[in-house]
What does this fold into?
Amino acid sequence: MPALLTVPVEADLVAERRAIPLPIPLYREALGMEVMSPFEVASGCDVVEIGKRFPWLVLAGGIDKRVLAEVSLQNYPYYRKRCVELGG
It folds into this structure.
């Protein structure tokens, strides 16, 4: 089996900016990219839209970490459980 090449690509840099085309297809063609991690909601990345446009792309992350500041320690286990249920 050939060695797996891992090339980190910062998801913040590929957040959609309406006027700038996403480089995701270029990264897939040039590097064989199949995974984006972390996928940063706070930087403007739209998990649902990107998932629909690129169904082959595995998105790791996609949780708005700013919301964590609003979750109490008492409610955190429930929040974590729901994130896993909804996001895998």
